[in-house]
Amino acid sequence: MTLVAKPKTRRRKAAHPLRAEAGRGFAPWAAAAGLLTPAVLLAAVADRWQGGWAETRTELHSVLLVLVPLAAAAGCRQGGRERRRGTEELWGTAVRLPLARFLASALPVALGMAAGYLVAAAGALLATWPYARGDRPHLDLLPTDAVVLAAAAVAGHVVGRLIPWRAAAPLLALGGYLGLALTGRADTGVGRSLDPAIPVSEGLVPVVWQPGAMAVWTVGLTAAAVLAYAARRRWTALPPLAAAVTAGALLVGTGDGLWRTDPVGGRQVCDTSTTPQVCVNARYGELLPQVTAALSGVTGRLEGVRNLPVRFEDHSGEPRDGEVQLPMLTPIGWSVVRGRLTDPEQYAWEAVMMLEGRGDCPELDPDLRLADDAVEHYLAPSPAEQTFDELDAKGDEERRRGLAQRRAARAALASMGGDERRRWLSAYFESVGDCGASEVPAL
Question: Most exposed among 7, 23, 365, 408, judged by the fewest C-beta atoms under 10 Å?
Fold first, then answer.
């Protein structure tokens, strides 16, 4: 009798529960939501952040207003899965501990949301990099924002386990959005200090420990809720709860001190070869050649003219003595889009308006208004000047008379010799800021 040996069969190693949940459960959809939601929101307003590192940080952080409630809703849906399937009692007979089963179900969704957000953030940073004109990437809030999303998903999972109602997930998302929106609109208060999705101005940076304290606050509360629900020894929820309370007290006690002015925004980069000199904020220092070129027609025609400010300034606060404010480069999306001045001619005209300094005048002396128009026409005419002239030419007699006076004043200034024009302009710029009758020579 011949004995035939049976071939050896290899026992397939069971997949880890986390791997199974991550590959076949709700986690891939959560990751897609964490990626696509910020991608769509950021793409819709790309003009106002692409090209500014601080603006990119602000927009990435602001999407938490939508993503945190969405993460909580995703976790809530995952948490109620066993009740919807009717397998809750069957899972209760499993050998694995309740906390292990909870984490195996909750963590893939939480990590998927955080990973999707981080991928979207990396894409936004890469989209900004070619157009950035100064400053540096602001990554201080990014890790904490990802942790907050993961914590929200896990906290939502606890809610889903406790509340079997199918509408719990959308209601949790709605309530979370309204809560974050209301605290974000408050000027001060406890909620504002503890809100992980609070709006952040481009000119501010957090103090060194603020992101860590915010992470401890959110993760501590979430860990306490998880341990109170699923741990065998529920007293183990006390240490993370104590850590969260300590971090929250530190955040609330510091209040407005959680944020400070970005030191880069207090510096300027200047071109001293022009009159007036041209300075731009160091956050956009590489825009200086574009700004100088846009103002070259103005500064060239002002060479040799007296009574001018020393420089155009672009720092926070009011201009100092001998300075005049540079036309605004921010917010990004208006004068500057993707690292380029959108309308150099308009920008030059705005610079002339700053030199005149009459923005606060309720009314102007008629002769002064004629002089202003002639100076604007000579230094940097408004792109809309021709359009308004054509409308006045078709208007009533008073408008046509006003147009004739403006054209005569423009022609008088343009016909002056170089020395005469410089003397006239020097006298004109002595009237900066005046609203009534002045000593400006008539044209």
Answer: 7
Q: Which two tokens stand for residue 440?
A: 């400006």
Contacts of 436 (CB under 8 A, 6+ apart): 365, 368
Phi/psi at 49 (5° precision): -135, -25
Judge contact between 287 and 339, C-beta under 8 A. Answer: yes
Residues with Cβ < 8 Å from 409, sequence gap 6 or more?
Answer: 370, 371, 373, 374, 443
Do 275 and 302 meet the contact criterion of CB atoms below 8 Å apart? yes
**Per-residue pLDDT, 223:** 96
Question: Is the Cβ–Cβ distance between 144 and 211 less than 8 Å?
Answer: yes
Report cis status (omega within 30 of 0) of the bond before 276: yes
Q: Report the distance separating Cα 220 and Cα 238, nearest Å.
A: 10
What per-residue confidence (pLDDT) applies to 22?
Answer: 57
* Residue for token pair 């020393």: 310
Cβ contact 226:167 at 8 Å: no
Whole-number Å distance between alpha carbons of 126 and 17: 35
Q: Which parts of the chain register pLDDT below 50?
A: 1, 14, 89-91, 95
How high is the pLDDT of residue 365? 83
State what percent of residues in the chain have pLDDT above 70.
Answer: 89
State the pTM of this model.
0.87
Residue 53: how many CB atoms within 10 A of its CB? 22
Are 160 and 169 contacting, i.e. CB atoms less than 8 angstroms apart? yes
Distance between CA 201 and CA 256 in Å, rounded? 13
C-alpha to C-alpha distance for 269 and 252, rounded to whole angstroms: 37
Angle formed by the axes of helices 98-128 and 17-24, to 10°? 50
Contact 202/54 with Cβ under 8 angstroms?
Answer: yes
Amino acid at 172: L
pLDDT value, residue 431: 82
- Cα–Cα–Cα angle for 429, 433, 439, nearest 5°? 55
